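Feature request, filed as a ticket because there's no other form

It would be nice if the structure record came with a short human-readable summary line next to the C-alpha cells. Right now we just get the raw output. Example of a typical job, pasted below so the devs can see what we mean:
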Amino acid sequence: MFERQIEIPSAEEILAEVPLPASLAAIKAERDQLAKDVITGKSDKLLVIVGPCSAHESKPVLEYVKRLGRLNERVKDRLVLIPRIYTNKPRTKGVGYKGMFSQPDPEKQENILKGIYAIRDLHIHAIEQSGLSGADEMLYPENYAYVEDLLTYVAVGARSSENQLHRLVSSGIELPVGIKNPMGGSIPVALNSVFAAQSPQVFKYHNWQVATKGNPYAHVVLRGRVDNYGNDIPNYHYETVMRVYEGYANSDGELKNPAVVIDSNHSNSKKRFHQQIRIVEEVLQNRNYDKDFKKIVKGFMIESFLEEGNQQHDIVFGKSITDPCLGWADTERLILDIAEKV
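Raw output as currently delivered:
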C-alpha cells in the first residue's frame, strides 16, 4: 500500500517557479562546452569532479565551491573543475539518510518538495558564487528533470549502471554522463551501458512517450569492484584501464568518444580517503607512460570537503556525514599537483 503524503508539482512547474537566471545559464553553457570538449578529445585538459560525498547542508557546500572557484583561476588552463554537489545518496541496505533531495534537514523526516526547492537553491547559488556549475548523481531517473538545467556533469552509480531506465534517460541528456562499472566490476557490462546511453531510444518518461538521439558524451567511470565475499578490489590500475581502451577500440566505431574517468574513492581506495592522493598520482604516472592510456583517461572523481574524515551527525562545519573525504588543504595540493602533471 502507498500512503500519499505530499503532492509534488511537475518539473516544468518547479523550473518556472525557480528559474536559473539567464546570466548564470550563460556561465553554465560555457562550462558545459568545456566538459564536452574534454570527453570528445577537442581539449587536452582533465576533468576533476571534486567535492563532498553528499551535500547535506548548503552553507559548507557553498563555502567549499567558493574556494574551488578561486582555485579554478589558478588551474583553468589545464583542468576543468566541476564541484561535486550530490543531493541524492544511495544506501547499500536501502535505509538511512538519502540526501538533500529527500531530506533537506538530515535530522528531520523526509520532505521531498522542500528538498527540491533546497537543491535548486543550492545549485543556483553555487554557480553564482563560484562561477562553476556542478555535478550530481542521477540516482532516480525521474528526479533528473528537476535539476536538468543546473548541471554540467551527471553520474550514474554502480548499483544503477545496469538499470534500463538509467541507460535510457542518459541517452537524452546532452551532457557528459559518467556511468560507473557495476558493483561486480564487469567491463563488458559497463561498455554495454555506455552503448545504450549513446544510442537513440524511445521510452516512457514523465507521462510521455519520448524519443532521444543518443548521448555521445556518455563514458565509463572506474570505481573499483566488490567481490562475492564483500572485498573491495581496485580497478584503476593500468591493466584494467587498457581493457576498457581495447573494448572501445574493438567496438568498430559503435562506441563514440572513448573516455574513462577514475573514481579515486569507493572500492578503489576501500574508502580510505587519504589513499585518493596516491591513486591519482599512480594514474598520472601511467598517463605519462603510455600515450593510449593518456588518451583515454579524461579525469578524476575525488571526494573532498572542508574538513577531512566524516562524522555521524552534522556537528563539525564542513565535515561529511556519509563517506569520509579529504580535507581542503590536501585537496588544494592535489589539484595543483594534477594541474602541474597534466
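Something like this underneath would help us a lot:
Residues 11-341 form a domain with the TIM Barrel fold (CATH 3.20.20.70).
The two ends are 54 Å apart (CA to CA).
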